[in-house]
Write a structure and sequence with these properties.
326 residues; mainly beta; Thrombin, subunit H; 5-stranded antiparallel beta sheet; 0% helix
């Protein structure tokens, strides 16, 4: 582990959000960017229990931690050939990492910074691990773009891997308030519900063909919000009615990458095409846009806590946070 002191600078200002369709009440947000060590290529973020933020330093083979108060960062090196993709904070308060280079799930102790690895079975080959989620029983579920999804029981260390329908593509994954687990397949163009006992996946297809379902997130009602990368859309699937709706993002070349639903059921997206964060108002069916201060930010994932939405700017070696203006 090594420490680095880098102080974030408020590069954003207060942005008044403009809607795409029906007018919604304007809101103001402050964007702040925090530099992280050069060459980190931060991919995913996860707010930490100590008030900091974990992030995967993909090209550095490390898990980073940012203290937003001081701007200081520190690294935990994950091992030779490490290339971490996703990070979440588990029910134990520890960061859990999907590491494509190690082909393993990795847990980092938030106090001692010790690293524990759970490799995939040797006979399964390289999975190109992506993202993870915990179900309500404490089982970690994960995806691999190589055409697999799987689960890890932290109590026993047992890792199981399942072949995904349609092969390559499994990417984003989430757990609903009721405990169901869904994943999105970018190359497969679908989302799937996982039967938690057998591990069987049931395909649920968005209305738009070849839409490129990339990430998925549940709201408080258990509805699934999906970022459709190829189509430049956000999709909504309601398991209660088995119905879909889709909305195209504003602009001429939208590219919906990340999706996140905050604690107030606010739907957030990152748009590579507009170099912006978007809020979607499902009541008014309107979008509000916050332009990112740095060009080519490449926000690949969003996650948050009360009053904050964090993103990893893979293209600028920065983290960014949106907070309501006071």
């Amino acid at each position: 582990m090594r420490g680095m002191g880098l102080f974030g600078t408020i590069l954003g200002a207060i942005f008044v959000l403009a809607s795409q369709r029906s007018p919604a009440a304007p809101e103001a947000y402050v964007l702040r960017e925090y530099p992280v060590p050069a060459g980190s290529h931060p991919h995913d973020v996860a707010p930490a229990a100590d008030g900091g933020v974990w992030y995967t330093a993909q090209t550095a083979g490390a898990l980073g931690h940012l203290d937003p108060v001081t701007g200081k960062t520190r690294y935990v090196e994950l091992g030779e050939r490490s290339a971490p993709h996703g990070v979440i904070v588990g029910p134990d308060g520890a960061p859990w990492v999907t590491d494509g280079g190690l082909n393993a799930i990795v847990r980092v102790d938030p106090r001692s910074m010790s690293v524990q690895r759970y490799p995939l079975p040797a006979d399964r080959g390289w999975a190109n691990l992506n993202t993870a989620t915990f179900d309500h029983r404490g089982i970690l579920w994960f995806t691999g773009q190589g055409g697999v999804y799987g689960r890890l029981d932290p109590k026993t260390g047992k890792v199981e891997v399942f072949d995904a329908p349609r092969g390559s593509g499994p990417y984003g994954i989430c757990t609903t308030p009721s405990g169901s687990v869904y994943y999105a397949s970018l190359a497969g163009n679908y989302i799937a519900r996982i039967e938690l006992t057998t591990g069987r996946a049931t395909i649920l297809e968005p209305p738009t063909p070849r839409q490129g379902a990339r990430r998925v997130w549940a709201d408080s009602k258990g509805r699934l919000w999906v970022s459709e990368w190829n189509a430049g859309q956000v999709g909504l699937y309601d398991p209660g009615t088995d119905r879909w709706r889709e909305w195209r993002l504003p602009g001429s070349t939208p590219m919906a990458y990340a999706v996140f639903v905050d604690g107030r059921d606010g739907v957030w997206l990152s748009d590579f095409g507009a170099n912006a964060l978007l809020q979607f108002d499902a009541v008014h069916e309107s979008f509000a846009m916050l332009k990112l201060p740095s060009a080519g930010a490449g926000v690949r994932q969003l996650l948050g806590r009360s009053g904050e939405v964090w993103g990893a700017e893979s293209g600028t070696d920065k983290l960014v946070v949106a907070r309501p203006a006071k």
